[in-house]
## 1
Amino acid sequence: MEEPAIEEGDHNRDVEVAPALISVHPDHKFIVVSIGSDLRVFDLQGSCSVTLVDDSSGPPHKDSIRAIRFGAGGKLFVSAGDDKLVKIWNANSWHCITTVCSEKRVSAVAISKDGMFVCFADKFGVVWALDLDGFDENQVLVDKKAAPVLAHYCSIITSLNTNGGQRITNIRNSHWMGGSLLVLIGTLKFVTVFPKKPLDGAHEIQTFCLGHTEFVSCLALVCTPDCPEGFLVSGSGDSTVRLWDITSGLLLDTCEVGSQAGLLESNGREEEHYSTVTNLCTTSDGTVVAVAIQGLQGIMLLNCNLSARSLSVAKVVSITGGCFIPTSLDTASSAEFLWMVTGVSTLHGLDSHSLARVRVVSGFRRSNDHEPTVLQDEEIPGGEKLLEKLQGSVSIENKVFSAAAEAVKMAMCKLLIKKHYSADKRDFRKRTRNDKKIKQ
């Protein structure tokens, strides 16, 4: 029997492009950009590029990195992706202290606030926890193995986040818990109790946050002195950003960002075509939310009034001088800069490899009487040295990023939207699958 033809773009996963990601050190010491399998680090304090050293005896990243994150204290950094490797770095020396092999491709990572656990999730809906007990800045962690915390959700987990340990009084009896783990799966978003010793016991679902009508793509957690349990902000393929009470799961407010940005279009049928919210970033006090939207050349800023439990559009910050549609946003708790990146890992048909473009908005944390400003390249902290390291080149032709913008759009769709196959194709894929478990 003749094998079914493999659909275009599916015969070789290596041709998939991966959106560029950016992560900022909590104290604004380092800026990290990942693109493809490349991890690029720049030291803002020393105004120099950083060379990574892998002491873990594990292999380097060989496939697209899909998730990067600093720990809350800035001592740890995690990178993970399609090569099923989770690499944990000492964010002072930039030595890799341990490498863990996942059974499936990794789609999200999180670090507990105390830095004692690293969590990572895969495209089959399993969340794993890695105990970092014994971590020393000058010592490599050996024989570390992850244990499953949540499993059998059978769908891609798009985002993970953790808050700090706290005393919760409205869940059963008052008792200490290690905090909460926030998980996004498809259109479902839930908060699960993250115990003080997650490797010793099963999880406890705290709340379900139901309301999005399309896949949930990103989230941000806001904690305030008045509400240490925190509020949750989420973005989705339904072109909305929503505010939630993390303890009860109550939907507090919805902001239609796609229509506000003028990106909600009809596809010629009765239903409307929505522009996906691809990334979120909040100020430390939660009063401002920066939103990246598919197709928007710039960012949208939302006012988040936690007292009134409301979200509203403040302004759209347009970015001129080329086709710049951010794929990732981040900021530091100690600075007023919003860092943005756009780019793709591999762009076929052009003599350009692992493209990235970095832009910065200043005044991200200022009051409403100060306009946020998009900095010119020469005004960016780190200047040309930073751009040379993180972008790969100080200047990149605009036509390259015009093509990259469409590639990024397709990459985000492939990552977040479930594919549908015929019965013959599903059978063929099962027989030719290459996801055997890797022994740790």
Note: Helices lie at 257-260, 383-391, 398-416, 423-431.
## 2
Amino acid sequence: MSGRAAAGSSARQRHDAPAPAKRAEPSSPPPSPDAALEDSVAELLGQEPVDYEHAVTMTRQSSSAYMSLPPVIYRMPNTAFGISMGLASHAIMWKELAGADFEIVLIDKGVVEIFNSIAWYSSAAVVGLIGLLYAYKVSSSFHLVMAEWLNETRCHFFNAPVLIFVMLLLGLPSHINASDQTLRILWSFAFFAQVLMTSHIYKAWMFSKRRNFSEAKPQFLMSTVGWFLLCNLGVICDIKGEWGIGLPAMCFGAGFMLYIEIVIFIFGKLHENKRMKGSPGMFLIIAPPSVGVLSLELLDDDASDFSLAGEMLLGWVYVCLLLLFRLGPVIWRTPSVFGEYWAYVFPLASATTATIKYASVLDTRTTEVLALIMVVTAWDLSSWCFAEWHFTCIAASEAKRSGATLCSIKKSTRQEG
């Protein structure tokens, strides 16, 4: 009897005991960057994806080449061209201000022309230096350059040298006299370079799995703003009158339609990428319409009044600008890539140039005050970017010497200050 009771108690204990935990099935690993690189290579070459082992081999070769480069080279991504773009945009801004006849004069025109020359020569020197360093990077580690070319964001920065070239022509100092014929020849080179570069990018927008419109980011606009810059330079050197074809207006149409399409997709995807809030890349949203305001004014034959379409587009620029400042720039954050801060400079300087042009045509006290406020804001932000960039370079050098992290060095330095 006691044995039967013991057996029953043991059975009940086995029945009441919790069931053993079910063994978790191994989850599938996240997509590897090598697989993304593999797909990109396949898309570029029009072939079937290569096997995974080959992608890993390519990555290891890239890493070994990366480590063999001097620090100033392997830290030289194509985003570094943004520094020269920011300086060139300031050259255009100061040139426009020098030509404006404002009643409110804060700086002598001679000083403004000096600022224009300093910004122009600085931009030319910086783009030359970065170009040489990047050329060495191409020759010594082509895998790194190819990785940037295949990246859905970085590929747009390969169009930066074309943009800088056109911007330097637009911001030429007054003591450099370039004939319209010379500008037309240079314009044709920039036009074909823009067509060649963007045709590859637009093909990816249509057929790529990772670089299509559904993955649009503000950096996509780097390939769009060039059309507006070409429009402005083409009108100035009278392409239509001399060649008998309205290529500048066609450039504006291409840029305008592409901008509308990209912006819709950018705003539709921002909620999925909270890190973009206040980031420098967000300011690229105002760059194409800011340059487009000048395009509409140059295309307008009525010199006595500002273009109505340009005025409406300028309103959109101001709304976006207020929204971007409301989100709050994150310039104090450690940059994720070299030249990142300078994405703040170029768009704001372009918006300021459009405002100066608007104030020059309307010739009212209100618009002059608005233009001067924009000039001060653009100057302050560019100075802030330069100071933060210099501070980050010093912190990076100290971090390399001491073995500490960059963030800790910056934090301790700020606390000491």
Note: The longest helix spans residues 365-402.
